[in-house]
Specification:
The chain is α+β, with helices and mostly antiparallel strands. The protein has a single domain, classed as Lipocalin, CATH 2.40.128.20. The protein has an eight-stranded antiparallel beta barrel with strand order 1-2-3-4-5-6-7-8. It is globular, with a radius of gyration of 18 Å.
């Protein structure tokens, strides 16, 4: 009887420590490392530029510092490659069940801002799930991964978190088949 209680107690304790909580500030810095090229793999919303879907949507970390980083963001259309710089700052305070916030703005137009929630980071698969709330109040989801891990095949925990954050929503994959200009 005592053995059965110990096994039951161990099961509760193990379940309690299995959940890692939301990523911390350190997870953000680990994912957005200096010179990392990060692809947007999928998103829960549609974007069109001049009537077409952009391809090769990426972020390249140009500068990484204590509370944030500067990104080169870019994409490709039939009209060519577009890129611009974005400054990102993170909150240093993180709590176990609250996603850290990354506030971004374009350096060429500081009126274009966005506040992301960094919900999940998998350091093995080098993928992350971010959300933001658009102008209509709708939560939008994005799944990002490092360029060298971009295969569309396995994102395990990131895919599960993406589905959890935007349940039942149609996902739109970003074409990454031919993006040699991104280095």
């Amino acid at each position: 009887m005592i053995f059965a209680r110990l096994i039951a107690l161990w099961g509760i304790a193990a379940a309690d420590f299995d959940y890692r909580g939301r990523p911390t500030y350190e997870g953000i810095i680990s994912f957005y490392q200096q010179d990392a090229v990060i692809y947007l793999l999928k998103r829960s919303y549609v974007v069109k530029v001049n009537g077409e879907h952009p391809t090769c949507v990426y972020n390249k970390v140009k500068i990484s510092y204590r509370i944030g980083f500067t990104l080169e963001q870019g994409y490709t259309t039939s009209h060519g490659n577009v890129k611009y710089d974005v400054d990102a700052k993170s909150n240093l305070e993180t709590k176990m069940n609250f996603a850290p916030i990354i506030t971004t703005f374009r350096l060429d137009n500081k009126n274009i801002t966005r506040k992301y929630h960094f919900h999940f980071y998998d350091p093995v698969a080098q993928c992350a799930v971010l959300t933001f709330t658009d102008y209509s109040g709708t939560v939008r989801c994005e799944l990002h991964t490092w360029k060298k891990f971009a295969s569309y095949k396995y994102y395990g925990n990131c895919q599960e978190e993406y589905d959890y954050q935007c349940p039942g929503r149609e996902s739109h994959s970003v074409y990454l088949g031919y993006c040699p200009h991104i280095r």
